[in-house]
Amino acid sequence: MAELIKIFEYEVIANDFNIAGTASSAIKRNLKQLGISPVIVRRVSIISYEAEINIIIHSNGGNIYLEIYDDKLTLRAYDNGPGIKNLELAMTEGFSTASNAARELGFGAGMGLPNMKKNSDAFKISSTEEGTKIDIDINIE
Amino acid sequence: MKLKQIIESLQVEMMTESADLEAEITGVYIGDLLSLVMAKAKQGDLWITIQTHLNVIAVVDLLDLGAVLVAEGVDIEEETLAKANSLNIPILRSRLSAYDLAKKLSQLGL
User: Fold this and answer.
1) pTM for the complete prediction?
2) Would you say residue B18 has pLDDT above 80?
3) Which fold does the domain A4-139 belong to in CATH?
4) What residues does each domain of chain A span?
5) pLDDT of residue A141
6) Which terminal residue of chain A has fewer beta carbons within 10 Å of its beta carbon, N or C?
7) pLDDT tens, A13-24?
8) What domains are there in chain B, each with its CATH number?
9) Distances from the Cα of B10 to the Cαs of B3, B34, B65, B89, in angstroms?
10) Is B38 within 8 Å of A24 (Cβ atoms)?
11) Cβ contact B62–A28 (<8 Å)
12) What's the gap in Å between the CA of A140 and the closest CA on chain B?
């Protein structure tokens, strides 16, 4: 059984493009301080950035949790709805429901969830109108 | 290649104040879709883009990119420059297109 060492929690506010990346930067700093290898830090950075952007662009706000275990990192991105209508489409590279405003800023490439999955060792997603839950493991051993 | 060599050879504008001109630039990535840049750009890369809003800095910071080179002489938002200065991230700017900049960087050996 993996031993939980530490939990970090970060709040992500809906629609605030300007501070997008704040949670991910904090996550990256915390991981570096814990001595996690640069390769793992990069993977977690990509995952947390995409999770953060998704919450900002698509949801009513939410939280990202980072759990540090002795043999893995678990990142949980939980938002407060409105949910993803078609999960299969959402997981398809290039598919996006981002607004034109978001696209003009370079978001909405339709790469978010695929990028997250690609950098995960385990990836779980579920979505209802109450919210979307993504649970990701990254092995560190 | 050192950042200052690129600045001199390409005659680009230095838009930020606190950058380390001796920093090593090890590659180049061109792109305007942030998720693609997140997935593909590598540590130490010079990132050529026409995106200039604050989130560009988040991407550079997360990936430890070497510098941003804004193409086509696009205006850069004040908040972006302020944030870049606070994190010592160099932002350069040129009137040239990404393609023309890439050709010059290739000639320099990058």
Assistant:
1) 0.93
2) no
3) Heat Shock Protein 90 (3.30.565)
4) 4-139
5) 76
6) N
7) 999 888 889 999
8) 3-107 (3.40.1390.20)
9) 11, 25, 19, 19
10) no
11) yes
12) 19
